[in-house]
What we know:
Blueprint: H1 2-9, H2 21-26, H3 34-50, H4 59-85, H5 101-106, H6 111-116, H7 124-130, H8 137-163, H9 184-218, H10 229-249, H11 253-278
Pfam family, one: Aa_trans
Domain Amino acid transporter transmembrane: 1-278
GO molecular function: L-amino acid transmembrane transporter activity
Amino acid sequence: MIIIGDVLSGTSSSGAHHAGVLEGWFGEHWWNARAFVLLITTLFVFSPLACFKRIDSLSYTSALSVALAVVFLVITVGITIVKLLNGSIAMPRLMPDVTDLTSFWKLFTTVPVLVTAFICHYNVHSIDNELEDSTQIKPVVRTALALCSSVYIMTSIFGFLLFGDGTLDDVLANFDMDLGIPYSSLLNDAVRVSYAAHLMLVFPIVFFPLRLNLDGLLFPSARPFHQANMRFALITIGLIATIFLGANFIPSIWDAFQFTGATAAVCLGFIFPASLTLR
């Protein structure tokens, strides 16, 4: 949700203001401010999609989100290749610039972000439970890992080639400048809108196991979650409200990734599995 706010309403987390899509189209108004845009997105996109009680109900939105991520990738790769061919991209710095002890320790701030990428398995059990043939889970996981790895590796490579040392914490904020190619403004908007829509459709997939596990933590002896409408509604509303407030007050996605990677990701990826094995 933080990235959606950055893309649609703009961000100033890096010190300089980067205009969002709505601000670029219509100028700065109260109705395209971050809080209002996220409120409308929460009420009319997130809330309806979060009402599904089975994860297979989100199969079509999930497929569409993958397609939108591929659109973002294709446009980014195309822009980078065009600029490489016309010689307008300088060779990016391949190694970190370590000049003192402070810059050396700063390298380790990337570790929590990288660790976060290793906890993408929280939906596996829900998907496995709803598959008609449970033996399909291994091909499903392999396909998902291959597709996601390809998309994100190529995005990082071509995104860094395109923007070099100017690459921001949220690379989508870089797409508010003149790219130096024909139809630059149109391509910028296509990249940001497609990825914002991708994130909106991904949200309920990530939200589903969060709600399910929180219910299991708070009400371990209660009747099945999908049969308790009141409990389902209260937990859903509480979580969405908390996420909405966090997206408005956390200044940068980098801060969110660092906190998650240093706490939840370490526990889910390393401590809890080891504890279960020892037990």
